Please model this.
Amino acid sequence: MHSDSFLDLCRAAIGSQNVLTDPADKAPYLTDWRRRYTGDALAVLRPGSTEEVAAVMRACHAHKLAVVPQGGNTGLCGGATPEPGDAAARGTVVLSLQRMNRVRQVDPLNNTITVEAGVILQQLQEAAQTHGRLFPLSLAAEGSCTIGGNLSTNAGGTAVLRYGNTRELCLGLEVVNIKGEVWDGLRGLRKDNTGYDLRDLFIGAEGTLGIITAAVMKLFPAPRARVTALAAVESPRAALALLAIAQSHAGAMLTGFELMSAMCMDLVTKHYPQLRYPFTAHHPQLVLLELSDSESEEHARTIFEKMMEVALEAGVVKDAVVAESVQQSRDFWNLREHIPLAQVEEGKNIKHDIAVPISRVADFIETTDTLLQDAFPGARMVTFGHLGDGNLHYNVSPPVGVDHDQFLSHQDAINLIVHNSVHVHNGSISAEHGLGQLKREENRRYKSEVELAMMRAIKQALDPQGMMHPGKVV
Model:
């Protein structure tokens, strides 16, 4: 049989134990983290080296099988699982990169680290720390997501304000193409103008153009001190005023600026009462700020105190509390990181990962909140995110007492309201989670035909048979 000869090739290339065909063995790889999408596949393949990835890709190409690359499978848009149905079961494989988990090189003088795609983000952070360096990408799933997945979706996280998205943190890639050829672009260069920037082409492509197998990532000197604080403000507009004050006083020291609505804090304290809300009064919005200083904690605190003095005198900030210990700093960040977990505990909701120009964030929230309340009275907006770079997680929960599945039946209508508002405010319907299969069709509504045609041309050039990650992005 067609499948038997293919599986034999794979077993010879990567070992029988790494070719999973039993339904129970395949199951963890076929359903996404949110359990919204379940697909099927002929096999799950687990290569352990670039050479093994190349051998598998050559076999897939020869047998005309579709390939679904997968890292930690922590995505929120169904971008790492195959399509369902008999066709997928016969003609698709999942290629898991979890065994490719080695740190190949750390170069402290060049401030770079070379890692394989299956390295867990937290392990990369820890490897940097052992050399007195910082790898600044940080997000809630860092204990399970992989750097390959971060690159494929151009993940953002909490430090984009200072360090940029994953794209800005990457200097070079190693990629296996659909034919099983290896492009070695692992150059730790900050200047290289020798042709088209292939690196940026593969970052954010969600595995639709080739398999990222390794990357050279930037490192930074570890800061000598961090100051973390929570500030209470009346509105997103006041939060933007605080951002302007913070940037004028702290400059590049400002590494985190997170907005959290009262509804976020209500859900976190309801489902995680051990996480203490640090204010005696109830505030409409909180801002989580973090300064990272290369000089000293005293220097950072002096700047922060001056910044808060100006903000309080201007009436921008109503109250503020500064972390007095490493543990209290973690407690503040736990309030932020537990928002998605609290939403899960509360029940189903309709998620939006959007970006608008920073200057238009308040306008977007005010306008869209009103539109949603008019259409769905009582809907609860769980709004939080990276205000410093214009990225909001603008999530909509059902009104109290309304059946969650019934409310989810309105998802298309709610998405249309939110995404139309994003478009009006000159934004993007996907800031850091990617498109996957969740937003692929939605994306076509807001992209021009010229832009879509260029994307299709790139896809056609690198994957003419549409074998790489079918049903995703384009």
In short: The longest strand covers residues 225-233. The longest helix spans residues 297-313.
